[in-house]
Amino acid sequence: MKKLRTLQTDVTINASKEKIWDALFIRFGDVHLFHPGLDGSHFIKGGRGEVGCERQCDLNSSTKVVERITQAQELETFTVEIVGGNMPMIKTFIVDLELREINSKKTTLVAVAHFNTSPAFMGIMVKGMMKAKLTDMLIGLKYHLETGKTVSKQTYKPVSKMYQRLQPGQSFQIATR
Question: What is the homologous superfamily of the domain 5-167 according to CATH?
Answer without folding.
Answer: START domain (3.30.530.20)
